[in-house]
Amino acid sequence: MSAAAGARSVTDRVRERTFGPLYSRNSRAVVSRGLMAARSSTWLVLVSGFFEPVLYLISMGVGLGPIVGSVAGPGGQEISYAAYIAPALLAVSAMNGAIYDSTWNVFFKMNFAKLYQGMLYTSLGPLDVAMGEIFLALLRGLLYATGFTMVMAAMGLITTAWAVLIIPASVLIAFGFASFGMGITSFMKTFQQMDWINFFLLPMFLFSATFYPLSVYPQYIQWLVQVMPLWHGVELLRQISIGQFTPATAIHVAYYLVMIVVGIVLTTSRLRALFLK
Q1: pLDDT (tens digit per residue) in 167-192
Q2: For residue 2, is it within any domain?
Q3: How many folded domains does the chain comprise?
Q4: Pick from 34, 33, 43, 11: which is nearest to 24 by CA?
Q5: Residue 12 domain flag
Q6: Would residue 5 count as lying in a domain?
Q7: Within-domain flag for 35
Q8: Distance separating alpha carbons of residues 27 and 16, to the nearest angstrom
Q9: Nearest to 238 by CA among 110, 71, 47, 119
Q10: pTM above 0.90, yes or no
């Protein structure tokens, strides 16, 4: 009888919460569990993911840069090729860090470890789980962005005080990809389906004006590229890196804010549909 009464009291408390069964304001429990797991098992993957864009910057910026010479940056300002691609690679780094944690990591927890089912059997709600996992992805994106910015500074590619905004802008980019990535992953059931994520990431990396201006494309391809989320991140960080702000800067920020809201709503609704039937 006492166990049944205790169960009823937990249920009553859940129903009395502001967001009902969706949110218990305890995302920190998900974050704490994720940090303990990362500390013991995934640190090598974390480190390796940071070096990929750094190697691109060294090979393309230092190796190819002297051949290319100066290029036109935001507002037509002439900058070195290394300074041109560095903010773009930083956006890629933030995207990769967030995507790894919010896709493959979530896929394993959802379909093999059955971790989310166990979490939702407690007082945690879908929004707690979603925000906790997204925060972990943001932490990874923050580490990548901070490390890459230090590399840029060491290479003399930071020339304005506005560059201090690069790190929070990178976290915004990571937030957008993490929230949306987790929602998309909730639809995936097999490893073959997960390969579609890389199928979309690779073209974004290559064609989002990462290594050359958008103007090299025909007009209809330019429109397609401008729909891609990475292009907005690349342009936002390029503008910040030289302190060149336009009305388009607000559009880039707004794009990610909308992406974050849609992603969180999608992720929360999917977790609720999957595990709170």
Answers
A1: 999 999 999 998 888 889 888 888 88
A2: no
A3: 1
A4: 11
A5: no
A6: no
A7: yes
A8: 18
A9: 71
A10: no
